[in-house]
Specification:
Layout (H helix, E strand, L loop, with lengths): L1 H19 L22 E13 L5 E14 L2 E13 L6 E13 L8 E14 L5 E14 L4 E15 L4 E16 L4
Antiparallel strand pairs: 1-2, 1-8, 2-3, 3-4, 4-5, 5-6, 6-7, 7-8
Keywords: Signal
InterPro entries: OMP/PagP_B-barrel
Protein name: Outer membrane protein beta-barrel domain-containing protein
Length: about 190
């Protein structure tokens, strides 16, 4: 009888202990950050992980990756550099690997913002090349987007915009098109 009573007491204590350890958590999906991440002196690193675009001239489809780093020179205004790595496919032609580097300017608009998100505009001018031929070309882009802060220092982003590249300046060829990108940014505080 003592063994059964001791066994039931241990079993009851164990079940109460297991219930006390039950913790329900949900992933964080939003954070009220205000202007803190985009203050002067802060840094941002990240990029677009899935840029998808369509060229008007070549009827081609492209997908790319754009790592990016920037510094806030004033509240809401960042300058930096981004690299471009991508793949372009066209019906009846070989696949083309693309690369490039460009400085950028990004401005976060104060109007229409919420405590957990910001609209922004970004422009970039740089150089680009491809695996087809030895062309290094002039490239520029103009994009608008929205950054939704999921924590105090991480934001998910969506961008849409227009991109232009002069494939061969002497021959007058080039391509332009619209693109959509999904990505993230990590905002790092600077010295204050």
């Amino acid at each position: 009888m003592k063994k059964i009573t001791l066994f039931l007491a241990l079993l009851g204590g164990l079940s109460l202990g297991l219930q006390a350890q039950s913790i329900e958590t949900r992933p964080q999906t939003t954070a009220n950050v205000g202007m803190d991440p985009i203050k002067q002196g802060n840094w941002m690193v990240g990029g677009s992980l899935g840029n998808i675009g369509y060229s008007f001239e070549g009827k081609s489809f492209g997908i790319g990756l754009q790592p990016r780093a920037g510094y806030f020179i004033s509240d809401g205004l960042a300058i930096g550099a981004q690299a471009t790595l991508g793949l372009t496919t066209e019906k009846g032609a070989d696949n083309e690997w693309n690369y490039g580097i460009a400085p950028f300017v990004r401005y976060y608009f104060p109007g229409g913002a919420s405590a957990s998100g910001r609209f922004f505009g970004q422009g970039d001018v740089g150089i680009a090349g491809s695996s087809v031929g030895d062309n290094v070309s002039f490239a520029l882009g103009a994009n608008v987007g929205y950054a939704h802060f999921i924590t105090q220092s991480v934001a998910l982003e969506v961008t849409a915009g227009y991109n232009y590249s002069k494939a061969n300046i002497n021959a007058g060829g080039g391509h332009n098109g619209l693109g959509v990108g999904l990505g993230f940014q990590i905002y790092l505080p600077g010295r204050r």
